[in-house]
Model the fold of this input.
Amino acid sequence: PRVIGHFAPGFRVHDLSFTPDGRQVWITSATGQDVTAFDARRRRPLFRVPVGPAPQHIAFTAHYAYVTSGYGSAIEKVSAATGEVVARARAPYGSFELAAADGYVVASSLLRGTLAVYSPNLKLLHVAVLAPATREVAITRP
Done:
């Protein structure tokens, strides 16, 4: 790896993730309420998605982004092409980390120790209490 340039988005950053095709980079705020999608090549903002209190996190599937606001107890399904919020659901307080794969979306709560399991359209399927705190989360096949 080598540095090929620098970029200042205009706000303090908490997290970032590239879309599966690499054309966009979604950047979450360390202090603001929005997630901003940028053109990865031109480094220009494409759209902002209101999610809730910072920090937020992102996970992608082929055509959608899932974004969380742990302090806002929210999870959203967003069109990666347009930034339109297509579904929104409540999440256990502190659900910052998330993953999306194999027909599931999961969010772990750092502050409640839960794992919430959703359908791709954010229908809550199950909440399990795992520990005093849960951090990273991933989806794997058995």
Observations:
- The mean pLDDT is 94.
- The first strand starts at residue 13 and ends at 18.
- The two ends are 33 Å apart (CA to CA).
